Each structure stands twice: as structure tokens, then as C-alpha cells.
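Sanity check. The docking grid for thiamine diphosphate depends on where the pocket ends up, so I'm generating a full predicted complex first rather than guessing from homology. Inputs follow.
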Amino acid sequence: MTISPQTKKMLLHTMLRIRMVQEGIESRYLEDEMKTPVHLCVGQEAIAAGVCAALTREDYIASNHRGHGHYLAKGGDLKALVAELHGRVDGCSKGFGGSMHLIDTSVGHMGSSSIVGGCISIGTGLGLAIKMKGTDQVCAVFFGDGAADEGVLYESINFAVLKRLPVIFILENNGWSVCSSVSARQEGRNIFHYAPPDRLFTGLIDGNDALAVYEAATEAVERARKGLGPSFLECLTYRILPHAGCAAQDASGYRDQEEIDAWRSRCPVERLKTDLVEGGILSPEDVAGMEQEVAGEIEEAFVFAKNSPKPDSGDLEKNLFCE
Ligand SMILES: Cc1ncc(C[n+]2csc(CCOP(=O)(O)OP(=O)(O)O)c2C)c(N)n1
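Predicted complex below; grid placement will be based on this.
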């Protein structure tokens, strides 16, 4: 597959926005202005960027607690993200959701859930809704290896295979569920070969390679649009920062420093930057310019967030609905 220079540049831009806003949140977190737990995705940017670049605005995503990257990559508003972390009315969830409950249906981000595995059934339901409406949309669902321990994944894949739903299950396997390593929880690869390949398109992908993720996601999207049903893409990656909060709050002793350093040296953002510079698509100055522009946008977002009013507690139930 040939990926256009324009798409490559767009992928880098998206990844820089995700990386740099994560760093901005991390460095300010102890100021205690963001009164929400945060689960940062430094190291995992290529997956959000690569998958969402293969989707259109009309397609859906469902996301999890580590969802800032998914939100931005799907077209969510940076200012609304930062305002949400500050619990302000201009936040994407009007200040009532916090970091784990981001939503922007206008760009097809159908919401993130703090319930590990919760997004899997929601995303499958969105796939069913698409099928019933008869549109050519697809739904991508992002979840971690901890969520892949749960029965809901198998039920959802089974249902999606049975009904040929346009759902793309994206496992971001970062090797850890809080302090529990994947090797202590899963015997071998637990997903592959679950269904015959003509019923479930599967792929094991280097999740730190944005181009490889984009390529696999594009194939999965094409299959889904043709009515060929669901895909399961396992993307191998690593979360560089703690499970939650900032580096200063990390639990100690559960990960080896060598493991973290080895993955740091495989940084997905640096990798794409190098590819683009060596491929003559961007000069080092172009990259620096892009970084500067993103840094300015992030500074503005923090100022915007702090100037946004806090929500009125009387509005707590205003945006709830039931049917
Ligand atoms: C149903 C449920 N069980 C447990 C938790 C507590 N919890 C929050 S995050 C997390 C780990 C999730 O790991 P994984 O799915 O691999 O995602 P990662 O944090 O590595 O991105 C757990 C167990 C929860 N939020 N929901």
C-alpha cells in the first residue's frame, strides 16, 4: 500500500498533538487544577492516529479510560479536552465527565467508559445500529490487554462475527493491567484463531509503527464497508508513563527500568519523524515548525480551560437521558 506524503504528515501532526498535550497534562498534574484521575497514553500515539486516519468523520469510535489520543485523533477539540480535565463547562462533557468520560458525537466519538471492557459491548452495539440503519459507517473500539481478559470481548466478537457487524476491535496491548503483567494473566495469545479468517480478519501489528497501523486499519475498514464483517487488530505497544497520574505518582517496583528504556527507544513519534525527514517529506525545520505550532495551541488550550467557568451543580442531571 502506498501512503501519500499528505497522510504521513497528518499522522505526525496528530501524534504530536497527542504526545505534547499528554506532556502538558503530566507536567501540570501536581498543581491539582485538574481534579480528575488521568491515564496518559505516551508511547501509544501511533494506534489512535493510525486507526482514526483510516476512518471518516461519520464513522464511530468507542474508547476507554486511556482515551485522550482516541478523542483527538477522531477530531475532538483540544480546548474541549483540556477544559474537560479542568471540570469546566466548555469541556467536551460539559465538565461533568472528567478524563475517562470524553464524548463528541459530532465527530463520531461516541464516548469513553471507565468500566474496563465496557466500550467493547458499546462499540459492538454501535456496529449493530449501523447495520440496522444500513449505512456504510464502521465503528472502531479501543481497549487494552486487561479488557481482553474479560468475557465481554469474546461475546462481542462472537456476536459481531455472527451478524457480520462493521466493528473493528483494536487491542492496544501495552503489556500491563495496572501492576499485573500480561504474562501473569494470559496463556499465549488468547484471541487469534478464535474465528475462521473469512469471518474475522485478524492482524498482529507493531503498534509503535503508525504507518503499519494505518495500513491494517485501512484494510479492516474496507472489509467492513463491503459488508465482510468485523476485524480484530492486536497492536503491540507500551505505556511509558504510570498507569494513572503523573510520573511522580508511579508505583515502584513493578516494572524494570530496562523495559521502560527499551520501549522509550522505540518511540512512535520519533520513528515517524525520522521516516518523514529521511524520506524527504519534511525537513528538520518543518518538524520544528510543526512542534512549535502545536505547543502554541496547547498553551492556548490551558489558558482557555482555566478561564472557562465551572458548571452549575444544579445542571448535574441536565444532560442525562433514558429511554
Ligand atoms: C470492570 C473494571 N474492573 C476493574 C477496573 C479497575 N481498572 C481500571 S484501569 C484497569 C487496567 C486496565 O488495563 P488495560 O485494559 O490493559 O488498559 P491499560 O490501562 O493498560 O491501558 C483496571 C483493572 C475498572 N475500571 N473496571
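Relevant for the grid: The radius of gyration is 19 Å.
Also worth noting: The chain is about 40% helix and 10% strand.
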